[in-house]
Design goal:
Elements: H1 3-19, E1 31-35, E2 52-58, E3 62-69, E4 72-80, E5 96-100, E6 103-112, E7 115-125, E8 131-140, E9 152-161
Parallel strand pairs: 4-5
Antiparallel strand pairs: 1-2, 1-9, 2-3, 3-4, 5-6, 6-7, 7-8, 8-9
């Protein structure tokens, strides 16, 4: 086999891998998840004794994430966009979702302690899809204009799948 033929075959295989449709592993985020408070950095407010559950449902075009903690309920809808999110500049526009490889990325706004904040959440699954890790970036768009002030927070939460 000549070097040129080997390079051509390798290029073809790499192109096919890049052009392949997304794996069905992306659909494995759908379901019910329970926060593991011992391995998580944040709790969604309220009484930490109340279990936090997240219900995720998705289609090819939309994603819904419903969060419950005690009597508190929050539901957010996201529309899938093409391409990966920009590395900077969470703009807090209407909810959008995208894929960054196998990671599910959602962006939007929410109220935290009466303040509107922009959020980006990046969800990844472990190998058997029994655990979901959520890396959260929250940006407060109000004030904090003095030197050295941080207007963002970062946290990581771990959820376990609730089997039905």
């Amino acid at each position: 086999m000549t070097v040129g033929l080997l390079v051509s075959l390798t290029s073809l295989l790499l192109w096919q891998a890049a052009a392949a449709p997304p794996s069905d592993s992306r659909a494995r985020f759908s379901g019910t998840w329970r926060l593991d408070p011992a391995r998580s950095e944040s709790v969604a407010g309220g009484d930490p004794a109340d279990a936090v559950t997240v219900e995720i449902s998705q289609t090819d075009r939309e994603l819904t994430i419903a969060t419950a903690q005690g009597a508190r309920r929050h539901q957010a809808g996201y529309t899938f966009t093409s391409g990966a999110p920009a590395p900077y500049g969470i703009d807090g526009s209407s909810g959008r979702a995208s894929w960054n490889g196998e990671a599910l990325v959602t962006e939007g706004t929410r109220l935290i302690q009466g303040q509107t904040v922009a959020t980006r959440e990046t969800r990844t699954l472990n190998a058997d899809a029994s655990e979901m890790t959520v890396e959260v970036v929250v940006i407060v768009q109000h004030g904090y204009q003095f030197r050295g002030a941080r207007n963002y927070g970062i946290g990581k939460d771990v959820y376990t799948r609730v089997e039905r």
